[in-house]
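W.,

You were right to be curious about this one. When I first looked at the sequence I had no strong expectations either way, so I just let the prediction run and decided to look at it fresh. Below is the sequence, 158 residues in total, followed by the output.
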Amino acid sequence: MRLISLLFCIIFSFPAQANIGDMPVEQQLAMQYIKAYTEHDFKTLRQFYTRESIFFDKTAGVEYKGERHIIDFLTRAYEGVLEYRLNIEHMFNNGSIVVIIGSYRLRGPGDQYGKPGRIIDIAVPGVTTLKFDKNTQRLIEHMDLMDYQTMADQLESQ
């Protein structure tokens, strides 16, 4: 009996991960979008954006509207980036709005950050909200609130 109890404790102590198919549709869209966003998959991103889509980094005060302007910005931002991913700590949605809390990890050339000739490696904590059109499954708005002070502290130490 003790052996069975021990086995149950061991089996159920491992963290469970939900399959993407078990998530609400909006969260599934968010995961597909974030995958394309962090992998620089412009072909897939174009399928999410419309002429009315908005990309807004509220902390930096930067906003782009429309597929062409957003893709142009991302093309410049991703230039030379070796690795870019989002470590999701928490995600939830309220209807068509998905909130993602986590850290964006960036590894790439330091030229854009005042560290020419160096490879930088930073993890910037933040909150990303994505709003989707439920009918078309396209992105209405991508808004970031990032902890740029943490980014500055990390850059200073590199």
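Here's what jumped out at me. The first strand starts at residue 54 and ends at 57. And, maybe more interesting for your project: The helical segments are 2-13, 25-38, 42-48, 67-77, 148-156.

Coffee later to discuss?

I.
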